[in-house]
Amino acid sequence: MKKSSLLITLLTLLPLAGCGQNDNSKTIYTSFYPVYDFTKRIVGDKFEVKNLTPVGTEPHDYEPKASEVAGMTSSKALFLNGLGLEHWKDELPSDLTKKSYVITKDIETLSIDNVTDPHVWLSPKNAIKEMSNILATLKEIDVDNYKYYEDNYNKAVEDFNALDAEFKTTIDGLSNKYLVVSHAAFGYLCHEYGLTQIYVRGLTPDDEPTSKELEEIINQVNTYNVNTIFYEELVSPEISKKIADETGVKTETLNPLEGLEQEDLDAGEDYLSIMRDNLAKIKEANK
Questions:
Q1: Fewer Cβ atoms within 10 A, N terminus or C terminus of the chain?
Q2: Sign (positive/negative) of CA torsion 49, 55, 59, 65?
Q3: Which segment of 58-67, 145-154, 241-250, 272-281 scores lowest on mean pLDDT?
Q4: In the chain, at which residue ranges do the beta strands (DSSP E only) sit?
Q5: At what angle do helices 33-43 and 146-172 cross, to 10 degrees?
């Protein structure tokens, strides 16, 4: 587990940061975008939902400021992905730890090189399980509004089941089932729908492939007749474009939903719309 000296320093300053802090008892904090999206769908207008990871920032790189920790401490709850994604969560003050909830509870996980893959949200079925965990937590912390939350959850399940069906039908019809991506974020999606993930970087976007690994990826692209190398908007495309140049294939973006750009948010994009855009790009690349 990464030890954050910066966060330790910030927590030392926490009493100062908390001075004059507004009452956040009607606020729920979420660690990054998918957790925010799922929470907002269930919570509706009963709580304000604040997303911690700033727009355009990788959640792997984020850690909270002292003022944010103070805000969370006076909030109703903090919802987390867990599975090692929020490296800072174990250093939170005890009062905040007691109101922190990991929404990936009881989800069957995958591993890469004996490290748990935290990107569970890229399977719509897992997303439903995460929303179920959110609903269960809301029953604990606000039972008076449980029927409202349950109705929102049931509507979300319908929408996410429809997305799941679209993925199944579309990917079943593809002639090529290989997906080359800039970092190993799509393991759950590939596992769910019968695709094979070939990744340039490992579970964190700042992993760098060795020369031997790069050569193997190039060989796989040629062997499996891959025609698209996918990269992410929040991660440098340099290596992905180098592989594309070496193999004569094209590049395209594929969004792991670790965070949306401001223009996407302004346009009303969300988990469902981005995932459908991802599906359209996978179909085009593998038809």
A1: N
A2: negative
A3: 58-67
A4: 24-30, 48-51, 75-80, 100-102, 111-112, 115-116, 178-183, 196-201, 228-231, 250-253
A5: 130
Q: Which of 277, 234, 250 minimizes the C-alpha distance to 55?
A: 234
Residue 14 has pLDDT above 90, yes or no: no
74/70 Cα distance (integer angstroms):
7
Read off the pLDDT band of 3 (50, 70, 90): very low
282 CB-near residues (< 8 Å, 6+ apart): 170, 171, 174, 179, 195, 254
- For 48-57, how does the pLDDT look when each residue is reduced to its tens digit (9 = 90+)? 999 999 988 8
Report the half-sphere exposure of 63 (CA within 13 A, side-chain side): 18
User: Between helices 271-286 and 146-172, what is the axis angle to 10°?
Assistant: 10
Nearest in space to 232 (alpha carbons), one of 198, 178, 278 = 278
Model-wide pTM > 0.70: yes
Phi and psi of 98, rounded to 5°?
A: -65, -25
pLDDT, tens digit (0-9, with 9 covering 90-100), for 60-80: 889 898 889 999 999 999 999
Residues 110, 185: Cα–Cα separation, whole Å: 11
CA distance 140 to 132: 13
Residue pair 244/230 in contact (Cβ under 8 Å)? The answer is no
Q: Rounded distance, CA 205 to CA 60, Å?
A: 8
Contact in structure between 17 and 69 (CB atoms under 8 Å): yes
The pLDDT of residue 118 is above 50? yes
Name the maximum alpha-carbon separation found in the chain.
62
